[in-house]
Structure of glutathione transferase:
Amino acid sequence: MPVKVLDFWGSPFAARVRVALAEKGVSYESKEEDLLVGKSDLLLQSNPIYGKVPVLLHDDKPVLESSNIVYYIDETWPNPQLLPACSYGRSRARFWTDFIDKKVYDVGRNIWMGKGDEVEAAKDEFIDVLKKLEGALGDREYYAGDQFGFLDIIFVSLSCWFPTYEKYGGFMVEEETPTIAAWLKRCYSRETVAKSMPDSQRVIEFVGMMRKMHGIE
Amino acid sequence: MPVKVLDFWGSPFAARVRVALAEKGVSYESKEEDLLVGKSDLLLQSNPIYGKVPVLLHDDKPVLESSNIVYYIDETWPNPQLLPACSYGRSRARFWTDFIDKKVYDVGRNIWMGKGDEVEAAKDEFIDVLKKLEGALGDREYYAGDQFGFLDIIFVSLSCWFPTYEKYGGFMVEEETPTIAAWLKRCYSRETVAKSMPDSQRVIEFVGMMRKMHGIE
């Protein structure tokens, strides 16, 4: 059954899907969307509600929304298992996934899209979000224990935009949340993560272009 | 292992948990929170991130966020199974759950909390949300086929506030989305739903009081 990903190089959400498929050793065809020029018909037909990447097409059936796709990947290709084995552990993974999905990217965008005082407020909120996620990690190596897993993928994939937030927010993740910074280094030491993640410098250039398009600079 | 629910009679999210436990035949202790007077220490300790009902305490371990709780209930007490058996069906249930969680209650609140033109815009958006959910139901009896299941619980529980939205938005769900109205009747014919849902008239009175508190009328 063929596996395709409707992809975009700079999307931290598409990066989740790339990391999960790499962890499972599933080969797939990546179809890069040119979001600035226009979305493909395949994307709009596959995701009529949101029209967003990533989409996983498995045997031509669309699976939508990145955290949902990672869940589907884990259930469809069970080895190695990414979600915790116990139902309580899975409920905790889903809770923090929802928290990350609600907070990290949107608050981060308020840093690089904000004007004046908005930037400072967004930076403070972003650091508060990171500290809550640092609390959830505790003294574990990874979010569910000593194995890299579901929640690590969900969170680490968004980190490719952290240098952008640091640049425009005027802060350093390593200074504010050193435990998160150490966990990030552990995650990036995995080839599945390192090779799936967009280049942070290219993200910074992309965001600079977006800021010009939106008349912020 | 004792099961407790930190509950609030009028919460459509707490209603999800009550319906799911009723479907499973799990007996539990309901601890009613008085949200107007103040939240209990147990609620604030169990849910430090959001401080919201419902919370499921299973053997004193907290499970948070209503759709996540229904998922946990289905995995912990497997009979009858609420989620679809196949991973693609489960991905579809999670996708629409997320859509419902993002849209239904918040857009509905914009109807009864809105002022002037905001109300009309919120009403139009709410009807659009219902039409999308009507499209997802298609010609099936329930969301996953001929059995009442996970997504039915997620959506039907929010319907106890529909008469409030109809009153302040000046529309009828039955006229706008007759297929949804017929599905609602099927759901309410189940004792597990009917006995778990707050009284819609009492919700209308509660919302009238909230509007006075917020200076809307």
